[in-house]
Write a structure and sequence with these properties.
308 residues, alpha+beta, Lysozyme, 3-stranded antiparallel sheet, two-stranded antiparallel ribbon, globular
Length: 308
């Protein structure tokens, strides 16, 4: 099968980005759908103008989801990139990258197009495979700090199961963003992550610090309000998971060559590199909290809950 990209457009609303492809000899609707990880019905929804999917014409333009890209880093091979994104067949990548003539020779900085099944964060999500444990051990810190960690841990682990967001990172973010739950935004409005905008229970205007060009600036901002803590944690995880800019951070969670601790640290670094926070030391602070309070153990609960 051969398809040629001839342009691009963006679907309206919350739809996936789409690109226009031109049908060439040998194409058929089924093969195009399969290559992009779509069902026939999903591809049909993108192309309501096509009344007979069995009669594609050479040169005909159809809409397919825009492809994601991975930038090759030092030491990476095509096989490792495929494994990282959960792609079982290298042919899926090679068909989308005809310029790669020798799979064993890719260059640092080279852009690799990926099929739909691997793009964004959704393709990178997978429940943690660590052996579950049945109790939390070696909790450090004061009794109040331990109580806060236990309070938010269940919501963080539920978010991990739903979206793949490491619970250790989520807990560290909640500690850092709220000052151990002391902020009014968290205690009164159930917003533990400083998420701006309008939430399920409305919005509230509050003062906050932002860092611009190395300088801390005090500003007014519009923050989301939630009905309860679980709702706030769920929205945080889903927000990260659906935003393409965090796809590299989530892809680290599927890297089989990394330990659970390394995955969490890489995820924290990925958040900072993607611009989650303006603080240049944000990832460093998260990593410190995860190490100091042994938060990595919360990533080991794919199905089992800790005893309280």
């Amino acid at each position: 099968m051969m398809v040629q990209r001839v342009g691009n457009s963006v679907a309206g609303g919350q739809s996936l980005k789409a690109e226009t492809y031109q049908v060439r000899a040998g194409d058929n609707f089924t093969s195009i759908a399969k290559q992009h990880g779509l069902s026939l019905s999903a591809l049909q929804k993108l192309n309501p103008q096509i009344r007979d999917i069995n009669r594609l014409q050479v040169g005909q333009e159809i809409q397919v989801p825009a492809l994601s890209q991975h930038t090759v880093k030092r030491g990476e091979s095509l096989e490792r990139i495929a494994k990282r994104y959960g792609i079982s067949n290298l042919d899926q990548i090679l068909k989308l990258n005809p310029e790669i003539r020798d799979p064993s020779r890719i260059q640092i900085g080279q852009k690799i197009r990926l099929p739909l099944a691997a793009q964004g964060t959704q393709g990178a999500l997978k429940k943690p495979q660590a052996t579950p444990i049945t109790s939390v051990t070696n909790l450090k810190g004061s009794s109040k700090e331990q109580a806060f960690i236990r309070k938010v841990s269940l919501a963080a682990m539920e978010s991990m199961e739903q979206t793949g967001t490491p619970a250790s990172v989520t807990i560290a973010q909640a500690i850092l963003e709220t000052g151990w739950g002391k902020s009014q935004l968290s205690s009164k409005y159930h917003n533990y992550f400083g998420i701006k905008g309008r939430g399920p229970a409305g919005a509230v205007d509050m003062r906050t610090n932002e860092v611009y060009s190395g300088r801390t600036v005090r500003i007014n901002a519009h923050f989301r309000v939630y009905n309860n803590m679980a709702e706030g944690f769920s929205d945080h995880g889903e927000m990260l998971a659906r935003m393409h800019r965090y796809s590299d951070a989530y892809a680290q969670c599927r890297d089989c060559d990394l330990s659970s601790k390394e995955k969490a640290n890489a995820f924290a670094q990925g958040l900072q590199e993607a611009g989650y926070a303006t603080d240049p030391k944000y990832a460093q602070k998260l990593t410190y909290l995860m190490k100091r309070y042994n938060l990595y153990q919360y990533d080991q609960f794919p199905s089992t809950r800790p005893s309280s």
